[in-house]
Specification:
Strand content: 5-15%
Order of helices and strands: EHEEHHEHEHHHHHH
Largest sheet: 5 strands, parallel
Distance between the termini: 27 Å
Oligomer: single chain
Shape: globular
Number of strands: 5
Length: about 200
């Protein structure tokens, strides 16, 4: 079996990313791949170079090299890095991070979630549910975690992100979020399986 190793920035994503990848792989019809059950977590400060002015900050070498050495030690055939966009520019950070990753694991990609992982969870609920709670334009919300608490009282990433992720309809969410569609296409590219766009 081929091994996909994921790198994430948040504790909640450590719990949820494996499940999300398997949902996407099922959507794509991927076979012959497993997702490493222990995602590598690096703090945002190790992934995005905060020493430079935003919003077009590049990736930060130290954290990416550390993560990729770990991925390589796990015999990764592919590596996928997911980071929240927040106020950064995904078009700058993503290609820069990918280039750095590929120095150690050639089959690698970096993706940013616009604006954060919870934005995907909000969009997965559908606009009718969100509109009834006064949530409009989830990709413009600065604090998607706060908005999630309107849907899931007491929402905490480490407690609720996995269960919310398991409820995602991949095809629907792809239609709602360009950054999630990029995440799906990244897994398609890494695993070498044509995506089902139906």
């Amino acid at each position: 079996m081929n091994r996909l190793v994921c790198i994430v920035e948040g504790h909640g994503e450590v719990e949820a990313i494996t499940s999300l990848c398997y949902l996407v792989m099922s959507h794509l019809g991927v076979t012959g791949w497993l997702v490493d059950k222990e995602p590598i977590r690096q703090p945002r400060s190790a992934l995005v170079d905060g020493r430079l002015p935003g919003p077009k900050r590049p990736a930060r070498d130290e954290g990416i090299i550390r993560a990729m050495k770990l991925a390589r030690s796990r015999k990764a055939q592919a590596a996928l890095l997911l980071c929240d966009e927040d106020d950064e520019c995904a078009a700058v950070w993503g290609p820069d991070a990918t280039e750095r990753m590929r120095k150690l694991v050639p089959n690698s990609l970096a993706v940013m979630a616009v604006r954060e992982y919870e934005t995907w969870l909000l969009l997965a609920r559908g606009m009718i549910d969100l509109g009834s709670l006064g949530i409009y334009g989830p990709e413009k919300i600065r604090d998607a975690k706060k908005a999630m608490r309107l849907l899931v009282p007491g929402y905490l990433p480490t407690t609720h992100q996995l269960s919310e992720t398991r409820g995602i309809d991949v095809a629907f969410l792809r239609s709602q979020s360009r950054s999630f569609d990029k995440f799906v296409r990244s897994i398609e590219m890494l695993c070498g399986t044509p995506a089902d766009h139906g």
